[in-house]
Amino acid sequence: MSAPSPDTLLRLDGVSRRFGGVRALSDISMTVERGRIVGVIGPNGAGKTTLFNLITGAYRADAGAIVFDDHDVTAWPAHRIIRAGLARTFQNIRLFAGMTVWEHLLVTQRPGGHVLRGLVPLGWSNPAVTARAEHVLKFFGLEAYRNVLARTLPYGIQRKVDMARALASGPKLLLLDEPVAGMNHDEAEDLRKLLLRLNEEGLSILLIEHDMAFVMNLCHELYVLDFGVRIAAGDPAAIRRDPVVLDAYLGSEAC
After folding, report:
1. Number of domains the chain contains
2. What is the model's pTM?
3. How far apart are CA 69 and CA 84, in angstroms?
């Protein structure tokens, strides 16, 4: 195992996972440096969501190590990894239908920026929590939806609320699973600018996405998976020219 960079926030060393006789991931190594935006791309079934599930503790790796913020979290349960400073959104939005946008920004917090294990307590009034919720609400431009129930929100706004809720927990690393899925071009561009602003403020981001224009104009580095194997890694310009990636995934999309 090579010595990590002092700026490495997340490191995977030779991580593998099987489901019965199916190899979902095989010997995956990658890093996310502090203050960087890193993308994971590849065709459906490449193992991208399995990768996120391993990083967040939803699954356990069969082999290899996962190190987050200088802690070996390979065997940690999900709630402990979240408390260490990792937040995640899902491909399928998971909001509480009967809660308002504002309540979503409170429920993810407790003093120290960690995750609550229950719903928002009646009369919740911690000044630090409410101040952060207010900041996140404004950052995502959700003021008009403050007291609106999640189930009545347009799809694009639900996506924003999902990300705002994750951000409200005060993460060191934000994992986004297909953040612009279902969004139109203008919505995706608005989100790209928001993520760049977050990154400029120091947030590290790891994302899965199929929208290549979005990824190529956002990420500092890309990792490409195919059939559970890492087939390429590099900056977007290098990935765009890589013949192996072109053949396996990008094709005419890279032109």
Report:
1. 2
2. 0.88
3. 8
Q: Is 109 a domain residue? A: yes
CA dist., res. 248 & res. 121, Å (int): 50
Residue the block writes with tokens 């490449």? 46
Domain that holds residue 50: 1-85+173-189+203-255
Contacts for 38 with CB less than 8 Å, ≥ 6 apart: 30, 32, 205, 206, 207, 219, 220, 221, 222, 223
Helical axes 127-139 vs 155-168, angle rounded to 10°: 140
CATH number at residue 247: 3.40.50.300
d(CA 135, CA 127): 12
Q: Does 237 fall in a domain?
A: yes
What would the pLDDT profile of 144-158 be if each residue is shown by its tens digit?
Answer: 999 999 999 998 899
Would you say residue 216 lies in a domain? yes
Q: Are 178 and 92 in contact (CB under 8 A)?
A: no
With left for phi above 0 and alpha for psi between -120 and 50, is residue 14 left, alpha or beta?
left
Question: Which tokens is 226 given?
Answer: 């195919």
Separation of alpha carbons 207 and 166, rounded Å: 13
Contact 34, 41 (CB under 8 A): no
pLDDT at 251: 60
The answer on 64 and 76 residing in a single domain is yes
Question: Do 120 and 81 belong to one domain?
Answer: no
The H or E element that residue 31 is part of is strand 22-33
Please tell me the number of Cα atoms within 13 Å of 48 on its side-chain side: 26
Whether residue 64 sits in one domain with residue 179: yes
Kindly state whether residue 198 falls inside one of the protein's structural domains. Answer: no
